[in-house]
Amino acid sequence: MTAYAIAYLRNIKFGDDIIEYLQRVDATLAPYDGHFIVHGDDAEPIEGEWSGAPIVIEFPDYDHLRGWYDSPAYREILHLRTDNADSTVVFVNGCGRDHKATDVLV
């Protein structure tokens, strides 16, 4: 089942470290078949407060997602982001296209 890394970044200090992170992160995703499906585009707050950059990275499954996040290549650059932005990051499994809202009641 598809899995997602979802991040909400705020107070990003755009400097050399963030630029280096952006230049290197794609190479860390490739071995795990991860790819961005949302990457920092302006978000339109419809309900509640929002002042940051949304990021969603899709992986084939949860094992690929964890493998990427725990990989030496990603761990080497992680601090470039965490030292220069406030962030909330969650991992979540996706659901199939045939999922219905009431499926969670079972």
TrEMBL record:
Stretches that traverse the bilayer: none
Domain DUF1330 residues, every copy: 2-94
Lineage: superkingdom: Bacteria
The record's listing under SUPFAM superfamilies reads: Dimeric alpha+beta barrel
What InterPro entries does the record tag this protein with?
Answer: Dimeric_a/b-barrel, DUF1330
Q: What is this protein called?
A: DUF1330 domain-containing protein
